[in-house]
Predict the structure.
Amino acid sequence: LRGLTCLARTGCDKEKLFLQAARKAATWMRAQQDADGAWRRGVSPLTGNTFHAYYIYAAAALAEFAHTYNDGASLEAAVSNARFVLSLRDRNGWIRAMSFSQDKPALLHTIGYTLQGLFDVGRLADHPECTAAAEEGARKILSCQDEKTGSIPGRFEDGYRPDVPWTSTTGNSQMAVLWFHLADHTGATEFESAARRANSFNRSIQDLYHTD
């Protein structure tokens, strides 16, 4: 839906095929949503949760579509999911169900989806509680970034406690995107610095001389 929305508004969708497909996708997503805002139907059998907080990233796609094409039903669906995700927060800002399975720590990858989704819904739907929740989580992750290398632990336990010594290039990039957006949103320079460090680390481990 995110991709179709972007394609539809580029000006190259003369026959409105991308827009038509985007509307169908948004309609289908709304139809799968439960009354409390969660998505429980069609959850991957490879995961152990009946619902996932990181589906807020899909809600953000609904919000993007709604914002672009003034679709009130899609905006309400996005906000409904955001309310559900906010209800999963504890007093330390940790959000339950960010992991693939309830009994396992959350990957930075899925944490990144969750925080990015909250920020986007908050921005597009004018929902400051969402952007505040995203900022709180982003600051907790920032406090765990290696100041020298710019890398971030690749998995976290409840309370944003690092769980592993390894890092995730995908998660590093996701957090860099969010930190850059937060720098623009809040004016806090530490977010931009953290984003640049994360990007520098990812570049530093790219093998430019590999045979591929």
The longest helix spans residues 169-186. Helices lie at 2-8, 17-32, 56-69, 72-86, 108-124, 128-142, 169-186, 189-204. The first strand starts at residue 106 and ends at 107. Strands lie at 106-107, 155-157, 161-162.
